[in-house]
């Protein structure tokens, strides 16, 4: 099962935990965008869809705008084979786009439930999205919410290194996705299995 890394606006530099994961983890692939500084939703979706087609049933790991990209993928391409998603510090493009026109194409944020297991990681002092709103989105997406404490935007500035806690969340999500895949292959109801082993909108500290 591959892990696809989806950075946000301006990409993830060498000190970002996403860059560390690319160096440390097997079967981890960066989804490259044509223009990191002038994001266009259509272009970013095309790149992500092509990556998923090359690596079917991946775990998606999105940070900031990359997390919002996952929500658009789930909404616009429900048939895509996605095993699970880790959405870290999603960017509130609905309330930031006026001041940052580069993000406007990503608004509004889709709010429908995902068709796969997901974890949303929010921060209590994230300048890009209040924790309360991140919790609401997690509930709408039927995802688990994890409170990272006061971790800023959970990026290179937070000085997380390889972010061991995030790696543990990814490992747990991957385990859930594998159980779900086995259950679906056995003919069980995917939604029922997902909710039984991965309760939606659960809160974790």
Automatic annotation (TrEMBL):
Superkingdom, taxonomy of origin: Bacteria
Name of the protein: Alpha/beta hydrolase
Transmembrane regions listed in the UniProt entry: none
One Pfam family, short name: Ser_hydrolase
Organism expressing this protein natively: uncultured Pleomorphomonas sp
GO MF term set: hydrolase activity
